[in-house]
Amino acid sequence: MGDVFVLAEHRQGALREVSQEMLTKASALAAELGGSTVAVLLGSGVDSFAETLAGYSDKVLYVDDPLFADYNSEKYQKVLVELINQYKPELFMIGHTTQGVDLAPALAVEMKMPFIADVFDVQVADGKLQPIRQYYQGKVNANFAFKGEAPYLITFREASLEAAEPSKEGQIEKIDSPLKEDIEYRRFVEYLEAEVGDVDITQSEILIAVGRGVKEDKNMAMIEELAAAINADLCGSRAATDAGWLPHDRQVGTSGKTVKPKLYIAIGISGAFQHIAGIKGSKTIVAINRDPDAPIFTVADFAIVDDLFKVVPKMAEKLKELRG
Amino acid sequence: MKTFVCIKRVPDTSEAEVKVDATGKDVDSSKFSFDINDADNYAVEEAVLIKEAKGGTVQVICMGPADADVMIRMALAKGGDSAMRIDDPRINARDPLQSAKALAAAIKGQEFDLVLTGCMSNDDGNMSTGVALAEELGIPHAAMVKKVEVEDGKIKAHRELEGGVIEVVEVTLPAVVTIQTGINEPRYAPIRGIRQAQKKELKVLKIEDLNLSEEEVGAAGSLIEMKEFYIPEVVSTAEIIEGEPEEKAEIMATKLVKGGLL
């Protein structure tokens, strides 16, 4: 008992960082629970991933089979049910990623496992696991307890912590695929690469980003004026690109681009974790938002807590004056 | 195509102050304004687009109080044919697996091809209900979908992955698809539709109507327990610019230019 299992995640020939992040957390939890860590890897031609994972986990359990060449929630679910029944871990961790959210809830229902989604931290109190997650896009935290018997299941938020350096020499065990035949009702077809636009914001030096607080399309004129004053490129949160204020290739965040400008000015962006994950590489972040509790301020270097409609036009005017 | 679309009424807290209420397990929502959940609004539009292209029906399902009727009627005005609202405080709607069980109970036994949900709610953000619902119904699913192509007996769903990469999957019908925002451009309800929506059927259901027992819902029906809500400390190392709005603008502009930040 006390073992913590982690589903390693990979896509298009690359292991995803969330795997190492989860194993880092899993190691700390397993130490407190008196168990060990096991990385579960499903793939085809993934020997090198197994070796990498062994640096982070006491054990790597992996299936190497052409059936798992590409991710498929239905196949993963069938295999994980088998493995969880066989090994009975205390906790099973899956990334709160586009793979994890497509898989974990169905697995939880099938196995009647206590399940908490989008956990960003887990503590151990009196030998019991206490997962913590957010509500209202980061404005409220909630502490949870699992009821009933282990195994317990969580999806763990990406970039909640920094992965440790590899320090283990875990045992690697290759197992036969518990799934023998392909399934028909869900089939992987292909990957399509993200669209490319006129400006590559991943290369921009100065970015002005807009979010829901800008309210409507006509207010973009004011933003464009500010951008013109400092030769900035425009980008935005998911809300801004969904609303059509900017093309989709200007979206910053987990489902969009990761940017690393010298200066990032976030206007009317509250700072959902999906957005913040995409801007951490910025050298200087200026945030303008009228809500002092907006999570964007946790990563900002300069905070303007005020009405953007009063601040932005004046800022554009002053910048033009100063820059002649 | 017979489509169910699941919608939720959620508060807009993007710029609102959020306070924990006296129970310590909920927030004070008395000052919030409410609307249909963002992703659900796109799901409604997608359901109506599919009906317009392929024929069939759109049935709206919502779990929530009578205040949600405004959002339900709006979905009906856009092209929904009828609606069900699950309104029972005995259900623990904070547990996405319990929500999924109740929604599944409302759908089971009816004929359908497709169930659409938003991929995420603005308030709880578990991103779990739709996928759990598929498992409760015993049918396949695709989550976080940015494009749906309806074919004979199956769909091609374009899942939006990290970095904007699209994963195309083929799923046989019936299926559950969780819709990502930005998949379409949600329409405004036409005036005529709004009038017609008032006459469309809206059934209100309790757990007894869903054949769920009291043991299956509420705290007894949840395998997780929320212990407490609290406001996280906003740990900010930011330099806070003080003054009237115009002063703040000038101070910041000056810092950008003189501080070599440009």
Polypeptide structure, described:
Chain A has helices at residues 18-33, 47-54, 73-87, 100-111, 220-229, 238-242, 273-276, 308-322; strands at 4-7, 10-11, 14-15, 37-43, 59-64, 91-96, 115-125, 128-135, 140-146, 152-157, 171-175, 186-192, 206-210, 233-236, 263-267, 284-289, 302-305. Chain A is an alpha/beta fold. Chain A has two domains: 4-175, Rossmann fold; 201-322, Rossmann fold (3-Layer(aba) Sandwich). The longest helix of chain A has 16 residues, at 18-33. In chain A, a hairpin with a 4-residue loop joins strand 8 and strand 9 (140-146). Chain A is elongated. The mean pLDDT of chain A is 96. Chain B has a single domain (2-221), classed as Rossmann fold. Chain B has six helices and 13 strands. In chain B, the strands form two sheets. Chain B has a nine-stranded mixed β-sheet with strand order 9-8-7-10-6-1-4-5-11, with helices on both faces. In chain B, helix 2 crosses helix 5 (191-197) and helix 3 crosses helix 4 (129-137). The model of chain B has no long low-confidence stretch (mean pLDDT 96). Classes of the chains: A alpha/beta (324), B alpha/beta (262). Strand 17 (302-305) of chain A pairs parallel with strand 13 of chain B.
Summarize this structure as a short list of keywords or feature phrases:
heterodimer; A: 324 residues; alpha/beta; Rossmann fold; nine-stranded mixed β-sheet; five-stranded parallel β-sheet; 17 strands; 26% helix; B: 262 residues; two-stranded antiparallel sheet; 6 helices; 13 strands; 27% strand
The biggest sheet of chain B, with number of strands, parallel, antiparallel or mixed sense and barrel status, is: 9 strands, mixed
Order of helices and strands of chain A: EEEHEHEHEHEEEEEEEHEHEHEEH
Oligomer: heterodimer
Shape-level CATH architecture of chain B: 3-Layer(aba) Sandwich
Briefly note the CATH topology name of the largest domain in chain A. Answer: Rossmann fold
Class derived from helix and strand content of chain A? alpha/beta
Query: Structural class of the helices, strands and pairings of chain B?
Result: alpha/beta
**CATH homologous superfamily designation of chain B:** HUPs
| Average predicted confidence as pLDDT of chain B | 96
Tally of distinct domains of chain B? 1
Give the strand line-up of the largest sheet of chain A: 9-8-7-10-6-1-4-5-11
Q: Which chains share the greatest interface?
A: A-B, 105 and 86 residues
Main-sheet strand order of chain B equals 9-8-7-10-6-1-4-5-11
The DSSP helix count of chain A reads: 8
The number of distinct β-strands of chain A equals 17
Query: How much helical structure, as a percent, in the residues of chain A?
Result: 25-40%
Share of helix of chain B, binned:
25-40%
